[in-house]
């Protein structure tokens, strides 16, 4: 293969990547014209690239409106990346979680954003007889509990709005929206028995390289013992540990 063929091949790959980058949570479906305009490429060339991506399962074309969306291969790739990243951050976070549990005596959990829920992927339970219990693998809401709010506060405005509109009243939506703004500024979320289980909790986001938030560190305990005064006393410690985990997670890999 000569140099010109290599350059042509590289250009084709880059154009295909540009097409995939057009799709977002806000725009999961796009027409040929929309994609062509976004990447400033002729429709004929864009169409050929789209056909190749469809043939390889990276995109699929909807029969109802002829728009394109991610295909099954992207779902498979996402699952592989999700399992790899969640395993990596779990191993990085465990020493900090265990140390935090031993120091404060309450349960410490690691949550991962999953669709519009949060999933517990690691946990060190309190050694005390009365404790808050969450199973690894259990899913919980984003709109209730400190762990959910710590994740929700750092998602896109469209994502947040899609969650807010599921809530029962405008007052609840406005209150949560205002709270999310504060969480963004302080990087700490608090919950006082929001899920009606007699549980209070604190959570802090874990930031990725591009400041995205897909994980959070959470401390929880029974409201009779883990009071607001107790939470106020340790919230900086929770935040500092989340920062340390973020730094480890984003450190260059050898």
Task: Outline the structure in words.
This protein has 254 residues and is of the alpha+beta class. It has two domains: 3-70, Arc Repressor Mutant, subunit A, CATH 1.10.10.10; 80-250, Beta-Lactamase (2-Layer Sandwich). The protein has helices spanning 3-20, 32-39, 43-55, 72-104, 146-152, 157-164, 170-186, 228-250, and strands spanning 59-61, 68-70, 107-114, 117-124, 139-141, 189-192, 199-207, 213-222. The strands form two sheets. Strands 5-4-3-8-7-6 form a six-stranded antiparallel sheet, sandwiched between helices. Helix 4 (72-104) packs across helix 8. It is elongated and about 65 Å long. The two termini are 33 Å apart. The mean pLDDT is 90.
Question: What is the count of helical runs?
Answer: 8
Structural class: alpha+beta
User: So, CATH architecture of the largest domain?
Assistant: 2-Layer Sandwich
Q: What proportion strand?
A: 15-25%
- Note the gap between the termini: 33 Å
Query: How many discrete domains?
Result: 2
Shape: elongated
* Uncertain spans: none
Helix and strand pattern: HHHEEHEEEHHHEEEH
